[in-house]
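thought: user wants a sequence for this fold. calling inverse folding tool.
action: design(structure=
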């Protein structure tokens, strides 16, 4: 694969008096931020603050829409009719786009969150609904989707530019899906372990499953989750390690 790579994180996940992660520190490290839009986390003020900090740090922003599940942090599966889900996605992306515009920024990509993302990775019909909603709102939006997923296929079929991502801190099953968080070994802990995991996959041009199976991919972006206690240290190790390995770190719009 090429030597240009993106480092992204899911951010803006505080709301009200509740605080999640160290967004200010993370935005000094990553190239692109996936900003919560209020349904699983985030609120208008947090969204505004995250966009402003991203602008100051030169970080591109994307919408991180989810099922309406504040109590479950968007990680509970829901059966939402396609027309309603489309409206929910357009509502969330549009809200962030308005805040971004007021701050002199633009939303350039979309990455579904949590259960919505996991379900759409495996369900072609759901993936098509997600891709259709994004395209109807703005066909120039980039879809950030997990490598080898139904979301990648649906996004391209809908006419969207798709960037495939791999996860620094998550393990993979033999079919390319993430090991469920409820199972042992789902999370990869420690900055050096995450870096080795990422470099192994990038050098192999493949997802490497928990059992050692290799599934060829063309990954362009690496995600580190912003809600982990080790997130900032992991992101810094990834940035430094990728640069040492000869990768140029760029924002998602610069990958094309």
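)
observation: tool returned 256 residues.
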């Amino acid at each position: 694969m090429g030597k240009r790579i993106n480092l992204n994180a899911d951010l803006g996940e505080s709301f009200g008096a509740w605080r999640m992660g160290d967004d200010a520190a993370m935005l000094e490290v990553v190239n692109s931020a996936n900003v919560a839009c209020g349904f699983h986390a985030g609120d208008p003020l947090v969204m505004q603050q995250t966009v402003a900090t991203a602008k100051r740090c030169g970080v591109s922003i994307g919408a991180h829409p989810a099922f309406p599940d504040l109590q479950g942090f968007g990680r509970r599966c829901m059966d939402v009719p396609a027309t309603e889900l489309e409206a929910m996605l357009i509502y969330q992306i549009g809200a962030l786009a308005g805040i971004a515009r007021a701050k002199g920024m633009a939303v350039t990509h979309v990455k579904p969150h949590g259960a919505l993302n996991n379900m759409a990775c495996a369900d072609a019909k759901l993936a098509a609904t997600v891709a259709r909603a994004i395209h109807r709102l703005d066909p120039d939006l980039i879809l950030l989707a997990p490598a080898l997923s139904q979301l990648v296929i649906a996004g391209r079929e809908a006419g969207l530019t798709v960037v495939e991502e791999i996860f620094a801190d998550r393990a993979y099953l033999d079919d390319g899906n993430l090991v469920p968080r409820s199972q042992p070994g789902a999370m990869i802990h420690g900055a050096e372990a995450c870096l080795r995991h990422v470099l192994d996959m990038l050098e192999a041009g493949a997802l490497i499953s928990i059992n050692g199976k290799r599934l060829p991919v063309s990954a362009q972006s690496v995600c580190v989750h912003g809600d982990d206690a080790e997130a900032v240290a992991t992101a810094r190790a990834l940035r430094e390690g990728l640069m040492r390995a000869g990768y140029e770190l760029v924002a998602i719009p610069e990958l094309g």
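thought: summarizing for user.
answer: Here is the designed sequence. Helices lie at 23-26, 44-57, 82-102, 114-122, 124-137, 150-157, 191-204, 231-244.
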